[in-house]
Structures are given as structure tokens and as C-alpha cells.
TrEMBL record:
E.C. no: 6.3.5.1
Gene3D superfamilies noted in UniProt: Carbon-nitrogen hydrolase, HUPs
GO molecular function, one term: ATP binding
Boundaries of every CN hydrolase domain copy: 1-264
Entry similarity comment: In the C-terminal section; belongs to the NAD synthetase family.
Quaternary organization: Homohexamer.
InterPro entries: C-N_Hydrolase, C-N_Hydrolase_sf, Gln-dep_NAD_synthase, NAD/GMP_synthase, NAD_synthase, Rossmann-like_a/b/a_fold
PROSITE patterns with a match to the protein in the record: CN_HYDROLASE
UniProt KW keywords: ATP-binding, Ligase, NAD, Nucleotide-binding
Any GO BP: 'de novo' NAD+ biosynthetic process from L-tryptophan
Pathway: Cofactor biosynthesis; NAD(+) biosynthesis; NAD(+) from deamido-NAD(+) (L-Gln route): step 1/1
Record's protein name: Glutamine-dependent NAD(+) synthetase
Length: 683
């Protein structure tokens, strides 16, 4: 489900649609994503009693609905039990709540902060009475219901619940539940996209039933529910270590339902010959079993065909970049009720990659409409303000909702101007060429008039300070103009609404701080802010081959440059890697070691002297590591104002929630660097 934090109306509608689809396909049990009633990303709104109140109001609507009759429904919501807040699953059938199952292992790493809002249920295999609020009692006629760690025994099988993180925990509940005879494991997840992560989730689910036998079903949220994360679906059904059904990882469908018919006897025969499992099962501490007078199978189902295993198809990283951020942008655009995007298009790899993601989004919209998605069609018509419009051609849709803008200065080359113009023509965006020199001269002129001094670029004899300040002025004026054009471009074209400004700083530049604070990296959202330069280059190659965007060839072959210093004989003299004092490939390695390997300066040095022993002496490695940490710490303050970016990498430097660090460092790192020097001398 593509749920949205605090959108109780929309969330209820999507839950009911999923139940209708499940029933129409003959399902007898329906599982939804984690905290689907309120939406997973409510954050500190979980503290508010309103969030729990409205969740119970939605639950009452679900219990009353004819759609939920004769099917076991399993929904997620926060519940307050004895003044403690839990992340729960509420399982009900025919207007009766069967069990409220609180989460046992809370996700609290990376982007997850569940321990901030919830308490884990630490009473294993223990059930208590939960006193229902009045609005639920009126519907169910129940005063109390079971609350705790229990399993459901239907007339034909036994079903147990896991919630998201519990699958990833070393002591997952499905292990003991399986040994105790639970045959169906149901996992409701709120798992977000990270490049190259999907296979881990699939492997975990399949291995859960490979060792222990059983049926495992996993439901996940899909889409942008209000922040930097994109929940990437991949709902799945697995049996005895093999995938039976695979949901899409990226799509514009708000509701997607997987259904499978499986034979419980296959689970029983699979388990029967695993002697080690059966020996362990004889010693297991049993779970409380709540009897349910309902069967998941029918008495006359002998002739019903069962589903067969399939081979899971994984996307390549380039496909993931093409699809994930594109779907995230679409959700952001339609839910923010804006009329499109504006992108400062420089003719370099980063802004071109961002443009390609918007073009990919337009492809996805046209494809969804072609496949009969009425929701996408309605959203597209509202965005372009035309109730008869049918998006069929991605380029034509791009022209309506995507404005690109090349902002030239006297330091810009004709090459980048031509590259930007050609790419805009090929993707169909409404393209603007403008020159910022008059604005730059006016701002510098004010400074000169007040101080009586005129700063110069270093090639004309200016100091380093002057050189940097003059570059920053150009960059910041571009940001001011980007917002002006975003607000008024559609006005000049006689069209309603405003545009969201897109940023295009990649994850490596952000980490190094190779950007002007409050330049065009400052925007409303940034689809590539969590993606490395290396992956973006591969994505550009993918776009050349799959979207036939030949303009990207010259963009790929050009050295990355900020074009903020004067040209030499009409040619670019400034390059990113020379400015940074490191290559993008090196920067990517530093980023992974700093964040994923948790390496400080000394640990990073120790790892790199082995990794780079063929190409660098220890002294050279020490010099590189010191330079990186100086630059990183000097520029860390820029992360506090970083544009909200699509989270795609586990080495993201996002200061908001993922990578929590100080932003005022002692940039000398005297103790740490001395340890490195001692080691260099010893070597």
C-alpha cells in the first residue's frame, strides 16, 4: 500500500480496496504493511493522543465494513496499553478482534527511531487483557481482547505474526514459532529502499522457511509517505525456501495485492524429514494458542490448483535509480499539489541525471495510464490543470510539467550550454536560457560601493578568499533565480500553479562539502542526493541505451566542472577533482569507510594502507586521509541545511536523521593525525 503519514481518510480507502481485491481473488487471510492505518512515517506525531484516537476510529470503520466479513484481516496501528505505547498488529474476523500483537524487536538503526516512540514487548509467550476503547466495544461487543505474544489456531492450520525488524533480528520469532508448529508466518513491514538491498530481504524470507519449513508472507509499504524514504514494496509469498509470488519493487499503483493458494501438506511433509528440526521442536516452549472458529481452506478444494515457485527478478542498480527516485518524485509532486518541477540544468552529469529521473517519471506515468491506472490519470489531469488530458508521450508530458533552466555566466562554456539545450530537446522539457552576469555585477557592485574594494579572481591577481567569494556569489544568485522562475514561469505562460525546485548535489559532493552553501544544491527536494557519482555515471549510460538520449554521450565524456572560475582561451580550466584534491572514486571509498565501516581517521588509514598498497605509500595514504577529514569536518556545517534527498545509500551524510554528527569540529584532528604519523614512521 502507498500509505501517507496521518492521511487517515486515504489510508482507510487503500486498506478497504486491498481487502476487496483480496476477497475477489478468493483469499481468506489478508495482511497489510506495518502501521498502515496511520502510515509508518508519523515520527513524533506518535506522541500525540490524536494519532492513536484516529487510528482506533479507522479501525472501527474497518470492523463495521461489509468488506471485512469472512476474511481474517491483519492491520497495523499504534496502541496504548497500560500507558505504554506499542507498535501493534490488530487481527480481526467478522467484527471480533482475535489478537493485538505488539512488536517485540524495534528497528532503531539508520533511518529508524522506533525506540523513541514505542516500547518493545518483552514478555515472551505472554498474553494480557486489553481493555478496548468505547468506540470499538460498540462495534465488537467485546470489553477486553488478548494482547501479547500469541499465535492463532484456525480449524486447519496455525498462524503466527512477525513485524518487520523481527525478521532481521538474530533470534527471529519465526524460529521458535515454526518449531512449535506454526505453519504460516505473516510479516508486516515498513522497509525502505536502499540500492542493492532487495536481495537481502528476499534471502531472509526464503531462508526462514528453508531451514524450518512453512509459508512466509511479507507485506510492505510502497511509496513516499512524507519524508526522504521510499518504501519499496517487494511484497512476497514464500514456501519451504522458494518464492511463490513476487510484488513489484517500484510502481505507481497505490494498492497491489499478491494472492497465493498453497497446500499445507507440502509444509508438513517438508518438515517431517528434517530430524534436527523435529528434535528441537520436542523441547520448545509452547506459544499461547488462540482458537479461531474459521478455516483458511475449504472442504472441497481438492481440485483447486496450487501456485508453483518462481524465480525472483531483481532490478539492476541502474534500473533502481531510474525507477525508485522517479516514483518518489511522482508521490511528492501529486501530494504537494504543485504543477511540476524546475531544474537548473548545467550540462553536467549530476543535473543531467536528475533530468533523466524526471523523464523516467514521465515514462512511468504514461505506462501506468496505458495500463488503466485511474488514480494516476486523475493526478496527472489535476497537475496539468486539464480534465480531458491523457498522458501518452513522455516528452509531451515533460513539456507540461518540467522546466529546465541553463544559467550562463561569463565563466560558462558554449559546450555545457549546448549539452543542456540538446538534452532538454531530447527529453522534451520547457527549456530556458538565461545569463546571470548582470545580477552578479550588481551584487559585487554593491559590495564595491560600500567598501571601496573590488575582489578579483585569482587568475587576475586576486587572493584565495576573493576567488572563492566571487564563485559563491555566482552560485547563490543561481539559487535565487531558480526560485523566482519556479514561482513565476507558469504565470508567464498563462498556466496556474508553481514549480518545485529540484537540487542535484550527489552524495559524494555533500560528504566532501564541495558545494556552495545556499547555491543550486539548495532546493525543495533532491532525487540524487543519496547516490554516488559512480552510480550516476552508470545510470547515465543506462539512459543512453534505454531512453536513446544521445545528448548524454558528450555529457558522460566531459570532465565534471563547476564553471565558476574564468575560462582560459574560451575553454574550462576548472575541474571538480582538481578543486577537491581527490577523485570521485576515492571519495566514494572514504564515504563507505566513514559511515558503513564506522572508521575514524586512524582506522581509515589502517584499512587503506592495505587496500591501496599497490598504488600508494603509507605516507601518501596518510596525506589523503588527513586531507579528506580536514575537508569533511570543515564543511560539515553544510549538511545542516542540505536539501531533503531521496535516501539511496547507507553511506549518506544526511544530517537530519541518518548520519548524526557535530557540525563544529576541531579540524586539526591533532590526536588522531598524530596516531597516523606514528604508524607511518613505524612503517
Amino acid at each position: 500500500l502507498n500509505q501517507w503519514a496521518l492521511d487517515f481518510e486515504g489510508n482507510l480507502g487503500r486498506i478497504l480496496r486491498s481487502i476487496d481485491i483480496a476477497k475477489s481473488k478468493g483469499a481468506r487471510y489478508r495482511l497489510g504493511p506495518e502501521l498502515e492505518i496511520c502510515g509508518y512515517g508519523c515520527s513524533d506525531h506518535y506522541y500525540e493522543s490524536d494519532t492513536i484516537l484516529h487510528s482506533f476510529q479507522v479501525l472501527a470503520k474497518l470492523l463495521e465494513s461489509p468488506a471485512t466479513q469472512d476474511i481474517i484481516c491483519d492491520v497495523g496501528m499504534p496502541v496504548l496499553h497500560r500507558n505504554v505505547r506499542y507498535n501493534c498488529r490488530v487481527i480481526f474476523l467478522n467484527k471480533k478482534i482475535l489478537l493485538i500483537r505488539p512488536k517485540i524487536s524495534l528497528a532503531n538503526a539508520g533511518n529508524y527511531r522506533e525506540l523513541r516512540w514505542f516500547t518493545p514487548w518483552n514478555k515472551a509467550r505472554h498474553v494480557e487483557e486489553y481493555f478496548l476503547p468505547g468506540i470499538i466495544q460498540e462495534v465488537t461487543g467485546q470489553e477486553t481482547v488478548p494482547f501479547g505474544d500469541a499465535v492463532l489456531a484456525t480449524k486447519d492450520t496455525c498462524l503466527g505474526a512477525e513485524i518487520c525488524e523481527e525478521l532481521w533480528a538474530p533470534n527471529s520469532p519465526h524460529i521458535e514459532m515454526g518449531l512449535d508448529g506454526v505453519e504460516i508466518f505473516a510479516n508486516s513491514s515498513g522497509s525502505h529502499h536502499v540500492l542493492r538491498k532487495a536481495h537481502t530481504r528476499v534471502d531472509l524470507v526464503n531462508s526462514a522457511t528453508a531451514k524450518n519449513g512453512g509459508i512466509y508472507i511479507l507485506a510492505n509499504q510502497k511509496g513516499c509517505d512524507g519524508d526522504r524514504l521510499y518504501y519499496d514494496g517487494c511484497a512476497m509469498i514464500s514456501m519451504n525456501g522458494e518464492t511463490i509470488a513476487q510484488g513489484s519493487q517500484f510502481s505507481l499503483d497505490d494498492v497491489e495485492v499478491l494472492v497465493a493458494t498453497l497446500d499445507l501438506e507440502d509444509v508438513r511433509s517438508y518438515r517431517a524429514e528434517i530430524s534436527s528440526r523435529n528434535l528441537a521442536a520436542s523441547k520448545v516452549n509452547p506459544y499461547p494458542r488462540l482458537k479461531v472458529n474459521f478455516a483458511l481452506s475449504c472442504s472441497d478444494d481438492v481440485a483447486v490448483p496450487t501456485c508453483v515457485p518462481i524465480q525472483w527478478r531483481h532490478h539492476s542498480p541502474e534500473e533502481e535509480i531510474s525507477l525508485g527516485p522517479a516514483c518518489w518524485l511522482w508521490d511528492y509532486l501529486r501530494r504537494s499539489k504543485q504543477a511540476g518541477f524546475l531544474l537548473p540544468l548545467s550540462g553536467g552529469i549530476d543535473s543531467s541525471a536528475t533530468a533523466c529521473i524526471v523523464y523516467s517519471m514521465c515514462h512511468q506515468v504514461c505506462l501506468a495510464v496505458k495500463n488503466g491506472n485511474a488514480d494516476v490519470l486523475a493526478d496527472a489531469r489535476r497537475i496539468v490543470n486539464d480534465q480531458t488530458y491523457v498522458p501518452e508521450d513522455p516528452r509531451e508530458l515533460c513539456k507540461r510539467i518540467f522546466t529546465t533552466c541553463y544559467m550562463a555566466s561569463e565563466n560558462s562554456s558554449q559546450d555545457t550550454c549546448n549539452r543542456a539545450k540538446l538534452l532538454a530537446e531530447q527529453i522534451g522539457s520547457y527549456h530556458i536560457n538565461l545569463n546571470i552576469d548582470a545580477a552578479v555585477k550588481a551584487v559585487v557592485g554593491i559590495f564595491s560601493m560600500v567598501t571601496g574594494r573590488t575582489p578579483l579572481f585569482s587568475v587576475y591577481g586576486g587572493s584565495k578568499r576573493e576567488n572563492l567569494a566571487l564563485q559563491n556569489v555566482q552560485a547563490r544568485i543561481r539559487m535565487v533565480l531558480a526560485y523566482l522562475f519556479a514561482q513565476l514561469t507558469l504565470w508567464t505562460r498563462g498556466m496556474p500553479g508553481g514549480l518545485l525546485v529540484l537540487g542535484s548535489a550527489n552524495v559524494d559532493e555533500s560528504l566532501r562539502g564541495y558545494l556552495t552553501k545556499y547555491d543550486c544544491s539548495s532546493a525543495d527536494i533532491n532525487p540524487i542526493g543519496g547516490i554516488s557519482k559512480t552510480d550516476l555515471k552508470n545510470f547515465i549510460q543506462y539512459c543512453i541505451e534505454n531512453f536513446q538520449l544521445t545528448a548524454l554521450r558528450s555529457i558522460m565524456s566531459a570532465p565534471p566542472t563547476a564553471e565558476l572560475e574564468p575560462l582560459v582561451d574560451g575553454q574550462v580550466a576548472q575541474t571538480d577533482e582538481a578543486d577537491m584534491g581527490m577523485t570521485y572514486a576515492e571519495l566514494s571509498i572514504y564515504g563507505k569507510l566513514r559511515k558503513i565501516a564506522k572508521a575514524g581517521p586512524y582506522s581509515m588509514f589502517c584499512k587503506l594502507i592495505n587496500m591501496w598498497k599497490e598504488i600508494c605509500t603509507p605516507r601518501e595514504v596518510a596525506s589523503k586521509v588527513k586531507h579528506f577529514f580536514r575537508m569533511y569536518s570543515m564543511n560539515r556545517h553544510k549538511m545542516t541545511t542540505l536539501t531533503p534527498s531521496y535516501h539511496a545509500e547507507n553511506y549518506s551524510p544526511d544530517d537530519n536523521r541518518f548520519d548524526l554528527r557535530p557540525f563544529l569540529y576541531n579540524t586539526a584532528w591533532s590526536w588522531q593525525f598524530r596516531c597516523i604519523d606514528t604508524q607511518v614512521n613505524a612503517l
